Amino acid sequence: MSNALRGKLAEFIVARAVKATNKTRIEWDMFDLITPEGIKIEVKSAAYVQSWQQAKNSAISFGIAPAKGWEASTNTYAAEIKRNADVYVFCLLSEQDRSVVNPLNLDQWEFFVLATEQINQEKGNQKTIGLNNLLKMKPVRTRFLGLAEAVQEVMKK
User: What's the domain of life for this entry (predicted)?
Assistant: First the structure.
């Protein structure tokens, strides 16, 4: 339920869905995953229920800030600040009832997929995006079983 661990779990879930070719997770790399077709994916996660005690459920927001990418294989930073993936997969642990929320239950996750090009065009250098504004961008919305197809679909647009 903690933000850091949920993010790693979300990456694992997306990796399994798209059959990512990454052998190991490299912290701070330019993007999170790569598909067998060479599609670079950035994974972002959010949840209504957090690991700490809350007075109310969290508002949903995802980080989309462009950054200087770090290349793990050369231990160097890119000169340009930009979004380095081809596709963003926004993962929402959507269960809002603390008594039943379970990050390991794939039925409690929703996924929203957008091409990075669309984010760049519509959001420029914006650093975060809330759920309502994300939905206005008309992402491909899917569950786990449709995630690989959703990634392929946004790349065809």
Answer: Bacteria
